Amino acid sequence: xxxxxxxxxxxxxxxxxxxxxxxxxxxxxxxxxxxxxxxxxxxxxxxxxxxxxxxxxxxxxxxxxxxxxxxxxxxxxxxxxxxxxxxxxxxxxxxxxxxxxxxxxxxxxxxxxxxxxxxxxxxxxxxxxxxxxxxxxxxxxxxxxxxxxxxxxxxxxxxxxxxxxxxxxxxxxxxxxxxxxxxxxxxxxxxxxxxxxxxxxxxxxxxxxxxxxxxxxxxxxxxxxxxxxxxxxxxxxxxxxxxxxxxxxxxxxxxxxxxxxxxxxxxxxxxxxxxxxxxxxxxxxxxxxxxxxxxxxxxxxxxxxxxxxxxxxxxxxxxxxxxxxxxxxxxxxxxxxxxxxxxxxxxxxxxxxxxxxxxxxxxxxxxxxxxxxxxxxxxxxxxxxxxxxxxxxxxxxxxxxxxxxxxxxxxxxxxxxxxxxxxxxxxxxxxxxxxxxxxxxxxxxxxxxxxxxxxxxxxxxxxxxxxxxxxxxxxxxxxxxxxxxxxxxxxxxxxxxxxxxxxxxxxxxxxxxxxxxxxxxxxxxxxxxxxxxxxxxxxxxxxxxxxxxxxxxxxxxxxxxxxxxxxx
Amino acid sequence: xxxxxxxxxxxxxxxxxxxxxxxxxxxxxxxxxxxxxxxxxxxxxxxxxxxxxxxxxxxxxxxxxxxxxxxxxxxxxxxxxxxxxxxxxxxxxxxxxxxxxxxxxxxxxxxxxxxxxxxxxxxxxxxxxxxxxxxxxxxxxxxxxxxxxxxxxxxxxxxxxxxxxxxxxxxxxxxxxxxxxxxxxxxxxxxxxxxxxxxxxxxxxxxxxxxxxxxxxxxxxxxxxxxxxxxxxxxxxxxxxxxxxxxxxxxxxxxxxxxxxxxxxxxxxxxxxxxxxxxxxxxxxxxxxxxxxxxxxxxxxxxxxxxxxxxxxxxxxxxxxxxxxxxxxxxxxxxxxxxxxxxxxxxxxxxxxxxxxxxxxxxxxxxxxxxxxxxxxxxxxxxxxxxxxxxxxxxxxxxxxxxxxxxxxxxxxxxxxxxxxxxxxxxxxxxxxxxxxxxxxxxxxxxxxxxxxxxxxxxxxxxxxxxxxxxxxxxxxxxxxxxxxxxxxxxxxxxxxxxxxxxxxxxxxxxxxxxxxxxxxxxxxxxxxxxxxxxxxxxxxxxxxxxxxxxxxxxxxxxxxxxxxxxxxxxxxxxxxxxxxxxxxxxxxxxxxxxxxxxxxxxxxxxxxxxxxxxxxxxxxxxxxxxxxxxxxxxxxxxxxxxxxxxxxxxxxxxxxxxxxxxxxxxxxxxxxxxxxxxxxxxxxxxxxxxxxxxxxxxxxxxxxxxxxxxxxxxxxxxxxxxxxxxxxxxxxxxxxxxxxxxxxxxxxxxxxxxxxxxxxxxxxxxxxxxxxxxxxxxxxxxxxxxxxxxxxxxxxxxxxxxxxxxxxxxxxxxxxxxxxxxxxxxxxxxxxxxxxxxxxxxxxxxxxxxxxxxxxxxxxxxxxxxxxxxxxxxxxxxxxxxxxxxxxxxxxxxxxxxxxxxxxxxxxxxxxxxxxxxxxxxxxxxxxxxxxxxxxxxxxxxxxxxxxxxxxxxxxxxxxxxxxxxxxxxxxxxxxxxxxxxxxxxxxxxxxxxxxxxxxxxxxxxxxxxxxxxxxxxxxxxxxxxxxxxxxxxxxxxxxxxxxxxxxxxxxxxxxxxxxxxxxxxxxxxxxxxxxxxxxxxxxxxxxxxxxxxxxxxxxxxxxxxx
Lengths: 568, 1108
Fold this sequence. Notes:
The structure holds 2 protein chains of 2 kinds.
Chain A: H1 2-19, E1 34-35, H2 42-60, H3 67-70, E2 79-81, H4 102-125, H5 131-152, H6 174-191, H7 206-219, H8 223-234, H9 256-259, E3 275-279, H10 297-301, E4 315-317, E5 321-323, E6 334-336, H11 338-343, E7 357-358, E8 369-375, E9 380-381, E10 388-395, H12 406-409, E11 414-415, E12 435-439, H13 440-453, H14 457-471, H15 473-479, H16 494-505, H17 511-517, H18 521-525, H19 551-556
Antiparallel strand pairs in A: 2-6, 3-12, 4-5, 7-11, 8-9, 8-10
Helix pairs in contact in A: 2-4, 2-5, 4-5, 5-6, 5-7, 6-7, 7-8, 7-13, 8-13, 13-14, 13-16
Chain B: H1 2-7, E1 24-25, E2 29-30, E3 46-54, H2 56-67, E4 70-73, E5 84-92, H3 93-104, E6 106-110, E7 115-120, E8 134-141, E9 152-155, E10 161-163, E11 169-174, E12 180-184, E13 191-194, E14 200-204, E15 215-217, E16 222-224, E17 232-234, H4 248-252, E18 259-262, E19 273-276, E20 289-292, E21 295-296, E22 312-318, H5 321-324, E23 335-340, E24 346-361, H6 370-384, H7 399-404, H8 410-414, E25 418-430, E26 434-446, E27 453-466, E28 471-483, H9 491-496, E29 531-548, E30 559-578, E31 588-611, E32 614-637, E33 654-677, E34 681-692, E35 701-712, H10 717-720, E36 725-739, E37 750-758, E38 761-770, E39 779-792, E40 797-809, E41 812-816, E42 825-829, E43 832-848, E44 852-869, E45 890-893, E46 896-899, H11 902-906, E47 922-924, E48 944-948, E49 953-963, E50 966-976, E51 979-981, H12 983-986, H13 989-992, E52 1028-1030, E53 1033-1045, H14 1047-1051, E54 1057-1071, E55 1097-1107
Parallel strand pairs in B: 4-7, 8-14, 20-23
Antiparallel strand pairs in B: 1-2, 3-5, 6-7, 8-11, 9-10, 9-12, 12-13, 15-16, 17-22, 18-19, 20-21, 22-23, 24-25, 24-55, 25-26, 26-27, 27-28, 28-29, 29-30, 30-31, 31-32, 32-33, 33-34, 34-35, 35-36, 36-39, 37-38, 39-40, 40-43, 41-42, 43-44, 44-49, 45-48, 46-47, 49-50, 50-53, 51-52, 53-54, 54-55
């Protein structure tokens, strides 16, 4: 009986112990994520602002669809498709462009992700928070809105962070968004730090805001205001057009224009005083978080020359070790249009030098030789081919003889702005090079456009000539012709300025965006008359002056019916 | 049904086809058998007897054979020298009986269980005469005459009892008052045998085929099957043995109605997905709640895979609201109750169960031939301008092999003959105080693709101890270790490889890119050179204390308390090192460590009482659960060499670390009342209150009631004596259960830290992560179930039919948000779905003779799910693929009508249908437009719902043929009415021209005007059609041939029982699927688990079950 009583007591105690659970038992506290409202202190705000750079970077490092980077270039005057990936097809076969395109979708969602992050940071900073911090968030918001309205027209204008689910967004007229953009950028330009005063070289500075403001004023047709903003940059004395060799490869064969695009040379801290905004990337093996996702720039811009017998994307040099003669392994997903290759540049223009637009290939595989046939058109065929009119043995170091079709993907003149090669990772999925977002060269081009619109053609010519003086400096010395490449005010037109942008900013600017901003997409695309198996521009209808709103967005925003942009 | 009946032998037909009759005679003749009669009452049975000078025993045997009744009598009541001559032709049974008994000088009494008790005239009292305490002995055998150890022998109405030993023998001291012995054994019919003054017994146990008196686990206790009001399915016993399954749910697949098991991957050691009754949740988990010996493993990070199938005694699946309501917020997706084996009081029984065998691909699709691949290259060059390396081949590395005519079969190169073996040794036994079951198990599986290996070691100890007569304590403890080590070959890359690709470099190492300059597809064998360690453990400590208050103080009889507590510790670790051999020149070492610690505590109070014909059973539960999860990750790169792998990460020049942790908790209270009147009218009422940490403040608790009624019609007087209907029960239940299966922390809007380089150094940045929902609460499910359990013709035909209708509302829905919000989706309680279905299980005994038996089981389930409401505005969510009035998972796509041909394009036929079409493009139907009429262009308006992703119906047919000791079991399974997109076909045409693929998938050219396959043009599918196809299939899933070696043979070797079997799995599949198998994982390159795609496998094993 005694044991029974003891056991009964134990049972009662156990019952009570089990039932005495308190309220906190079910309380939830995230162990491993931060609540948005906990970021309002100084370091939290800093982290949120850095997060804007991160989200911005993700826009251009998207690797899911390699054609994403191509869609900004192909189907315009400057580029034609090469080894097509797919997402870019409706951007030269425009009749295929529809609201389900993955690129159209990604741009939209990533754009608004940045805007929401900016609004989130602004809320954390507070209405009366530090102006410089507000300015950085406003800069990103305005930059993105400028891009989005150019592409999509009327879109929701959001200035508060999303705190709960909404499906009733209205499209705000472009004009109203423009007002907000201008207001934000003016605040940003007034309050962002000077170029060397930012917390780190890559963080936002006032000239980034001014340059964006200049571009926005041009888009909304206020060239006088644009000129003022851009002049402020040029007159700041902080930047200079690079016209002398500099940096880590200054002693190697090359030229100073090329120097600006060498890995390790691109930043202001690395000697590039032309840079206004260089988006920084690092190898993750050196710097954790060096890049997010995987930049595909080399893949899309560098031809797939390694597919040609006798060509290799990396070779072992007896003295230098592993090197890549032609800028790493490319996929040749797009190539310069014939207009760029054969018509754009004048003789003596450095921007068209072999260092900047490489046109000559030589067999580079080690100790390689092969006997090939050459047909009547000069193309490589099999040595025993009946169409061979000549049989020749070629070897390492000889000029490459193209097979028919090689020039579409494997062998074409290509920009060296996106060369990238890491001996430790020759195949290299990613292209770790800084993104040259803004530089003084473009400031001159934008101001030329503003001056031209302000009926100041000679001022515009002066700005163009600032670039020409740099581009023709060496050939003027060589030829003794001090006026080589010089332009006169009579030559200035919007088309001329757009040509010059192509010459200066090829593979840097988002060509599609420039043409959409200036309303010249359809006319300029007609300059690209190529007809190849890879695809010829078609479907040039006025609807393409705007992108479609993504179908999923229209479907998800179910409480307000959106009409898609005209023609979609 | 009709057909089945025809297979039954007609009454009174050929005695060879009749059920066999086994009679054991010592001092008492005794049999208990299922007999065949067709709706004839006792008096209607006609008997024919023709004997000349026969013994009374011969006469009675003939009567027994004809009528199915058995005679019970005491030895010596007949005069052994008497001989009888009888002559009856088709005379009613009662007349014959009267006459025979009159002649033999005995009187008779007919009992309802077909026993005819014979006594000497005027001496019936001897059957109940009181005797002194005495010792009885006996032997118990199975129907084949093999001794049956572990049978519980109990003096009826007392706790006096014992268990048969390994020879099937028992010795028991019975009190003077004892009248009857009860023999019970799992899977056998319980027998009651009158003592009738005898001292020695031979008892033949009969296998339980009707299942009416089975006691089954129902959650927080057990219940007699005949008393159950809910829909509870027991997994057939034959599915729990002699099958080469590594996960018990693989055995359940197709064999149980209303349970859809899908083999999402056949990788050794992976678990299949299980959905009960279609699943009504869209975003929240549809996985059932799995409980092992009372302690949940679901939500505690355990898995059915942790449970060794050899240790499983029984599995019950609770399906309707009444059955699952006791699990409240965890019940909506059904509940699976697994009970493991326990020791039975007897001498130690040592059992070995093992099998070993081989595995192969269930089906290998034919790959494109070398010549055909070259043709595809050329076509790609023609139509896309894709470069060729030279005039013949596309890639540099193909040149040599092409020249030498050397080809590689890459599928063959990555595959191997799989080997599967399982060895299990268990020791069980005990005495009156302690019972034990200890089992050790080793499973070793070498997969059919190189590098896929699985080993599982498990140890289980189940102990029950009667501490005092009122307190019982015990443990169910297991430890399991999973080992999935190994670098795994990449099947998709093997499919992609050109036969001319280069396998090896000159130094004998694998060529990184066999099709170089193409670098999209690496050598499929490359990953086998990397080091991969994948280990997982589950240490599960689980104990209970059972207190019977009635034994402490009599007035409390019927009141019990049980404390059930479980703790699990689940560490998991995955280490990998990738170095030069896989083209990682820097070298990357990674270590992941995951850990879960979880506990469950349950207090269960029960009170059961019978008052006259009223039976009450009350259960109350108070339970708490908590799970803490954490993980950490370390990565180092840039090593000096690949020597040390992950064992010295500080040797890497750069390092990364990360960690994560979360916590989940739940509190529950449950009450249940079972009431039965006279075993005829049954009533169950349940209510559970659950609180879960995952919901918003103030919305954490939910209440889930249910009610159920049952009516055992066959117990009613008007059916009690009916010979045809042996079991007929109606069940009706209605109730609400819940679903809380969303991830933790979904009520908060959170920020995520990311790294970004600024100024050449790493900076920590914050970006928005997830939009929280401060109103998040549980999802509910209302369900109505009507069922009937039936057994006819001595239960030779028995089964269960259930109809149900369920509706899930306040769905935990991941609703897609406009991207303008900056977020992609949010979890919200919104929307409603419905599921309606029918489930049928039918067991028939088609043939039952002495030596030959044929049983069949048919299961059929059909379920129709429907989205009733989403956001309350009557609109579809096209973006998410959810459509009102349609099943939850649908395939919405264009309708492909063919391929555009050159003439059609030339005739400008496409201009009115699809202006952007080119010759060779997929030709889609212009179904509609913005105004609801075809508008001459292909866009979203032309998509329609083509089918559903879940099968419309599934079925299983099991046939078991037994001839003497030989048994053949054939299980066929079918899945009908589901659709799936085929990525083999959908694979971008971009790829078809540059890699190997399935030969069955062709392509269009101007000469080969295929109307089925598109051209190799990179844009031949400009609208993004996804190639959905039906995935109907019928499989010969399992065939098992087993042989029980006769006891007389094995005894000489000192063995009690020996069984041998040969079992084949996935032997053949009838399907139109193009690819490996309709259940294959065929993730497209770069998506999901594409690098570990794995086909379905066929296995054939030989097994041995040995009892010492």
